[in-house]
Amino acid sequence: MARPTVLTRPALADRFAASARATGALLSDDEFDGWFAGRRHASRFAVERIPLAGLRGWHEDPGTGNLVHETGRFFTVEGLSVRTGTPHAWMQPIIQQSEIGILGLAVKEFDGVLHLLMQAKMEPGNVGLVQLSPTVQATRSNYVGVHRGRPITHLDYFTQPGRSRVLVDVLQSEQGSWFLHKRNRNMIVEVTEDVPEHPDFCWLTLAQVRRLLRADNVINMDARSVLSCVPEPAGDEGPARHSGGELLRWLTDVKARADLQQRLVPLRGITGWHRSADAIRHDEGRFFEVVAIEAAAGNREVGHWTQPLIAPVGQGIAAFLTRPIGGVPHLLVQAKIEAGVRDVAELAPTFQALPANFAGAPDRLRPRFLDEVLAATGPALRYDSVQSEEGGRFHHATNRYQVIEVGSGFPLDEPPGFRWVTPGQLRALLQHPYYVNVQARSLLAGLGAVR
């Protein structure tokens, strides 16, 4: 009996690379643009802010003030006490969602070219509401039917053995500033059977998806996270400033030396925040708010619902500074500690913050490289797009994602907590959980769109 073909990672990377170069596709770019515009208007989509007391199916726990769903599932909004060393301590609201969801991308060959099955999906917090998501994007509560809605389309390819071949399967974290220990299963599977057509889904080549990554608010966060895990050809990247082993020892040392203490506390008791009829806000009007929305979507598993969302105060920036070292492109990463991070610190962009939070702040409190990022213009901006964060939990949370070329004259000095790494080194770490944060993964997906 013939053995089944087993693809090595380099062979798989070559297939994705061919898809990234493809000029032919099932849908032309114009046909896709018409389809996507049609999906944005095909169903009734509506989202409006409501008072916190207007949440249905949710309640404020009488003992803690936490916001809890009536089923005890989905997620809760609780209080978190954080200490990262004296005097760095604070309290804040945090989303607690311990269950692991699936972010799954199905791929299939058409005329010898891999195509990706993308979904036009409405999320209440998205800018524009409808964005392109992976084939499947679902919490465990969703796909086991807690919401008592319609079943998740194409879920079987990711949950039933034998329906597909698994190409990528790794747990990755999500926003550490707003989630406590949140992680999702990032999957890519290959299908060979005929996939039933559905009006909300379309097949695109990787070249087409990367074109869309250059546009604002089209490819959603969950899709960007999975796309960052697409295997890349090793190529001849050249020598890195630090070996892979040196990078891992450095990050391990950062984690071992850090003093990160996380403790859940009653939401009602957090200091520095206050509750009004329509939001839970920071006393200084900074950072973010907890708000409530009412949503309607004709093509969702549940057509009408209310829920709390986190709404940041202002637009963030996530940026990599890049320069050649010995002729090899490098990115400056930081080992970033965030309130809800699972494993103390993850590799993050050079700069990741909401600049408005530091307006008028003394120099000692301003993030490193803020001035370099704000001053970047023109050809220095190798990648520059505005992208929505997780629209199922955050309301109009956007970051301006940038890759900024600083040139060979930029200092090679590495401040504490920073290292120069190659893109290939970051991608290699994506084969493992909890090394590269979600903002850095979005930038890696975007970097693939401009090479």
UniProtKB/TrEMBL annotation:
UniProt-listed InterPro entries: EvaA-like, EvaA-like_sf
One Pfam family in the UniProt entry: Hexose_dehydrat
Domain dTDP-4-dehydro-6-deoxy-alpha-D-glucopyranose 2,3-dehydratase stretches: 30-230, 246-447
An MF annotation (GO) of this entry: lyase activity
Name this protein carries in UniProt: NDP-hexose 2,3-dehydratase
